[in-house]
Amino acid sequence: MTGKTTSAPRTGAAPAPGDDTGPLLSVTGLSGAFHTAHGSTQVLHDVTFDVPRGGITAVVGETGSGKSLSVLTVMGLMPPGLAVQGSVRFDGRELIGLGEDGYRELRGNQIAMVFQDARSSLNPVLTVGRQLAAVARLHRGVGRKEAEELVADTLARVRIPDPRRRMAQYPHQFSGGMAQRAMIAMALLCRPRLMLLDEPTTGLDVTTQADVMELVVELARQDGLTACLVTHDLGVVGETCDRVIVMRHGRVVEEAAAEAFFRAPESAYARTLLAANRIDEAPGSPT
Amino acid sequence: MSTTAETTRDHAEAEPVLTVADLRTDFTLRSRGRRHTLHAVDEVSLTLRPGETLAIVGESGSGKSTLARSILRLVPPTSGEVTLGGRPVADRRDRREVYRELQMVFQDPRGSLDPRQRVRSILDEPLRLHLKMPAADRDRRIKELLASVELPETVLDRLPAALSGGQRQRIGIARALAVQPKAVILDEPTASLDASTRGVVLDLLARLQREQGIAYLLISHDLQAVRRIAHRVQVMYAGRVVESGTTDEVLTNPAHPYTRALLDAAPVAQHGGHTRTIRLTGENPGPFEVLPGCALAPRCPLAEESCTAGRPPQLPFGGTHEAACPVIHRQVSADLADARRDKEDHHDQ
Fold it and tell me: Most buried in the list A158, B214, B258, B344, measured by CB within 10 Å?
């Protein structure tokens, strides 16, 4: 805890700030709509789910399911024009209606986000070391020398070999997998309590994808980091997650423990999705 | 659901549609006054027969996409020969002649369809340019094409942006099939699609193959897709083919450590996933590292001193199955010899 948490309005059974028993993130009745001159389109319908402390929760869905939008809303990064209603509680504190200053204090320090295409999330004209050091100095309030030490240590922690040499390199000199590790390191530098990962391994090779996800699992298990993974790939979910939230057309259609989910998904849609992720097990191979 | 399997056509007897012999594509780059040569495709050979699907499997940097582009001469190959319908492609003056027989479906239909061209015009173009069909026939053929990819005629007047990802990829497929090619190169045809759409598009491709006898060269890193529609597989690493055989031979009993690692890394949609048994260390060393021996040796857990000495030959693993790994070959041969000895001992007693 940072102790900076302002007194959030308490309603009903929501846990008080600092209460370690409730879920770390609690989304309740979240609705979102785009209002245009041609009328309004509702894209999130009464989205409700919890992210418990520790472990990895997956938000799964196909294109247009609202999975990314829900998670971006948590960070206050929803696209302009999206009007949201409902409640997003982080550690008991209401985030909906938080001003830009409030979000700025939250982002990075409390909740960090790792995006899909790591190389385009990095600034191409600055060395990776310089970008990471800037994050360390801003969020940890350390000096130049200390920031460099911190960056080198964190890069080693995400298993980037030879961190000192890598810090002097530019993003284009990083492979996709290495760049994603650097982005995870950037998120870790802020010591967040919740890490949101939006399709972190999409576009990576399978072997690299498996290595990056192993790293995320290790960070969650060893350091007690709470992670929320947004993905379309149930394979990745099966390998790594403890809890599954399935979304479709802006609604949560299923929320379950991973074990129960993969044994017997409740909703028909989840069964379809699971079957589609196991297409090679379909009867009749072409050989 | 229909499957692709019931056909037991013997592909091995038909005349090949496409053959590639010792194809090599080098890129030369200059940096700080020094010349670097990158061997993107390093002596790759393949044969594609009517009605069959050959999958080229590999990760980024393996050279699989450059191979596809070199076959179509979108990138000029450095050496080697591509033969289409019995005639070398290099001999043909007019590229259009090549494209009447060999077409391509691209990975990202958003990028490969003109955003300002309506569907009708996208499908009209190949009929007009390649087949020089009269307007009335073209109109009928466009409707046939749409029906064959299971799209309603209402999409004809839409722009690609108004279509879903799956619909766009169907238009990409219809455009490739418009000229009735003998072979189609599918470059990661399902990589940009959702899981539920992916299976449907793969089944569609398999059906069109059965109906029209088209040969597919499937470029993919998606092993599930490969298992679903490919008859044979060649695995590429660092520009070279490291393993080849029927889909069953390669994906059920992988021999090469790279193929094993690739299969092992694929996530499994079940709780707890699976345990990886073979791991490569580090990442692809990059295309400029020219190694005298096996390209995988620096990352391979099974590598021996001899692996770095010379390029490993393709060794037989039974049937049509071949792999360029002497270490595994020795292990498998030893296991077989043991099994044989056990059997003989058993007989003696």
Answer: B258
User: What separation in angstroms does the CA of B42 have from each of A146, B35, B38, B108, B258?
Assistant: 47, 18, 10, 26, 17
DSSP B125-181: HHHHHTS---HHHHHHHHHHHHHHTT--GGGGG--GGGS-HHHHHHHHHHHHHTT--
* Average pLDDT, rounded, for chain B: 89
Looking at residue A197, what DSSP letter applies? E
**Please, what's the b/e burial string for B17-27 (b: 16 or more CB within 10 A of its CB; e: otherwise)?**
bbbbeebbbee
**Contacts (Cβ under 8 Å, ≥6 apart) of B265:** A206, A207, A209, A210, B276
Interface test with A, best of B236, B268, B278, B284 (most A CBs within 10 A): B268
Question: pLDDT tens, B68-90?
Answer: 999 998 899 999 999 998 889 88
Question: What is the distance in angstroms between the CA of the first residue and the CA of the last residue of chain B?
Answer: 52
Nearest CA to CA, how far is A192 from chain B (Å)?
26
d(CA B130, CA B127): 6
A209 touches A233 (CB < 8 A): no
Taking the domains of chain A in order of start, what are their residue ranges? 25-276
Give contacts of B 214-253 with A, CB under 8 A.
Answer: 221, 223-225, 227-231, 246-248
Residue A276 near chain B (CB below 8 Å): yes
What would the two tokens of residue A268 be? 């028909």
Determine whether the interchain pair A279/B283 forms a contact, defined as Cβ–Cβ distance below 8 Å: no
What is the DSSP-derived secondary structure letter of residue A7? -
Can you read off the two tokens belonging to residue B262?
Answer: 């690739």
Asked whether the beta carbons of A103 and A73 are under 8 A apart, the reply is no
State how far the Cα of B191 lies from the Cα of A136, in Å rounded to an integer: 36
CA distances, A44 to each of A68, A82, B4, B38 (Å): 11, 10, 39, 49
Average pLDDT, chain A: 87
- pTM equals 0.84
pLDDT surpasses 50 at A3: no
Q: DSSP secondary-structure letter at A252?
A: E
In angstroms, the Cα distances linking B152 to A153, B94, B202 are 58, 35, 19
